[in-house]
Write a structure and sequence with these properties.
This protein is mostly helical. Helix 7 packs across helix 10 and helix 11 runs antiparallel to helix 12.
């Protein structure tokens, strides 16, 4: 079992990311549940409200191009979800950094662990069945961003206390408007022959938020895709637009970090006192810079693919956009990982550089920051049952 600790510089790298990686990769259900009546909390099993949910990458050796993203729900989700969901159960709620137990939802023994820890099983009580569904919905999304969780639960008609969604109504409205503005030209052109007026167009646009509507199936079938795929495709389409919005917000900070890592400004002020470890630190800085470059390259590739397929479609060639829709789920998960990793980097950098405009660090602080960056950008993270 994990030993009790009080200092955050002695906790495991994975636990550091869970506690300090930011809201895209971590959701502190313990803190969010405080002040909410037990009957209104996220989970009906009260002990489940004493956890921290987290996302972590687990990319396998199969590339997106090697698999067909259009097949039944169970198989497709199993293959194309390179970001997984974990539950961190701290030994002490007031000091989650002191260690605890981690349960990974897609591990082979997760059902037994959930049953042992919380009494959850698929043939259990109504509350257990309800909570397993909640966990399953959360596991369908690449990150823990409040907007994506909120829209997911709304689509499933599951009421959740709004205090769990750390997003302001103004930002929620702005995002919905952005997604509508991005999808309307495509819906209008794709369904030009079927749309009989403004009311019909509105129903097609409403289908973006409610894929159960007949219009959702009509839209995807216009691209030669099975109607049963509408829900997954619309979810991914909304998600990619959300991540593009999120990227625009953090891109300036990411560029500052990347420029800093490639300059002499990132050399610790006390580097001469750590000469034996100088080359090791510089190699680590170079590795983190390359990981950051690779993440940015993946994002640019996905956005370029979308923009070019959109332009071709609007010019009268639907082929590239049809291909994009067929791959949109795998793109959604990769983009979700990439943007969440960058969001985490920005969050960690902000914590470290608070009240430090010169961005000059001491060796130990720099070493710790590089370790945190490395974990945030690592695409294959080791699992541990105790943290």
């Amino acid at each position: 079992m994990a030993t009790t600790r009080r200092r955050t510089d002695s906790i495991s790298q994975i636990l550091e990311q869970i506690l300090f990686g930011g809201s895209s990769v971590s959701m502190n259900v313990i803190a969010l549940s405080r002040g909410i009546d037990p009957d209104e909390r996220l989970f009906q099993t009260l002990a489940l409200n004493n956890i921290i949910l987290f996302k972590y990458p687990n990319f396998n050796s199969v590339t997106d191009d090697d698999v067909n993203p259009i097949f039944d729900e169970g198989e497709s989700l199993g293959v194309n979800r390179p970001v997984e969901t974990g539950l961190y159960v701290p030994h002490t709620q007031d000091f989650p950094e002191s260690g605890g137990v981690a349960i990974y939802l897609r591990s082979n023994n997760s059902e037994n662990l959930l049953d042992e820890q919380f009494g959850l099983n698929a043939i259990g009580s109504e509350s257990a069945v309800h909570d397993l569904k909640i966990l399953s919905l959360i596991d369908r999304i690449p990150s823990l961003d409040a907007f994506l969780l909120k829209t997911c639960f709304e689509a499933e008609k599951i009421d959740v206390d709004p205090r769990y969604w750390t997003i302001k109504s103004e930002e929620d409205s702005q995002l919905r408007h952005l997604i509508r503005r991005r999808t309307e030209p495509i819906v209008r052109k794709a369904m030009a022959g079927a749309v009989g007026g403004s009311d019909s167009l509105e129903r097609f646009l409403d289908a973006i938020w409610n894929p159960a509507l007949e219009e959702a199936g009509l839209f995807v079938s216009a691209f030669g895709i099975e109607r049963s795929e509408a829900d997954a495709i619309f979810t991914a389409w909304k998600g990619t637009t959300f991540y593009e919005y999120q990227l625009r917000r953090i891109a300036p900070r990411v560029r500052i970090i990347l420029t800093w890592l490639k300059s002499r400004d990132c050399i610790p002020v006390d580097i001469k006192m750590h000469k034996p470890f100088e080359s090791q630190l510089f190699m680590h800085i170079e590795r983190v810079g390359k990981l950051l470059d690779a993440t940015m390259l993946d994002i640019r590739s996905i956005m370029l693919e979308y923009d070019s397929s959109f332009s071709a479609f609007m010019a009268g060639n639907p082929g590239p956009f049809r291909d994009y829709l067929r791959k949109v789920r795998s793109r959604y998960w990769l983009l979700g990982y990439c943007v969440s990793a960058l969001t985490s980097i920005v969050h960690l950098d902000g914590r470290c550089m608070r009240n430090n405009p010169s961005r000059k660090l001491y060796f130990d602080t720099m070493q710790k920051l590089m370790r945190q960056f490395d974990v945030a950008l690592d695409r294959r993270r080791e699992q541990k049952g105790t943290l």
